[in-house]
Amino acid sequence: MLHYAVVFLVIALVAALLGFTGIAVGAAEIAKILFFIFLILFVVSLIVGLMRRK
Fold first, then answer.
1. Greater pLDDT, 46 or 2
2. Cβ partners under 8 Å of residue 4, min gap 6
3. By C-alpha distance, which of 13, 15, 10, 6 is closest to 38?
4. What residues contact 35, with CB distance under 8 A and at least 6 apart?
5. Band of the pLDDT at 1, cuts 50, 70, 90?
6. How many of the other CB atoms lie within 10 Å of CB of 29?
7. Residue 34 in contact with residue 5, Cβ under 8 Å?
8. What pLDDT shows up at residue 21?
9. Which among 2, 12, 19, 31 is placed 20 to 30 Å from 42, CA to CA?
10. What is the pTM (predicted TM-score) of this model?
11. Which pLDDT score is estimated for 35?
C-alpha cells in the first residue's frame, strides 16, 4: 500500500508540473488519503508495540 501512495504522489507531482488538471487533483487526493491511513496505522502499531513491552 505504501508503494501506491508513493506512485500517486509522483503522478500528482508530474501532473502539477504540467498544469493542474483533473489527474493532478485526483492523484493528490488519493495520495493524501493514503498518507493519513498510513499515519493512523503507524500510530496504532506504535501504541500496540509499546503496550506489549510492558
1. 46
2. 34
3. 6
4. 5
5. low
6. 12
7. yes
8. 66
9. 12
10. 0.57
11. 84
Cell digits for 3? 508503494
The confidence band for 39, taking pLDDT boundaries of 50, 70 and 90, is: confident
Reading the block at residue 37, the C-alpha cell is 491511513
Distance CA 23, CA 27 (A): 6
Residue 37 · residue 49 · CB < 8 Å: no
- Match 508513493 to its residue by C-alpha cell: 6
List, in order, residues 6 or more apart from 24 with CB less than 8 Å away. 12, 15, 16, 18
Residue 38 CA neighbour count, 13 Å, CB half = 12
**CA–CA dist 41, 35 (Å, integer):** 10
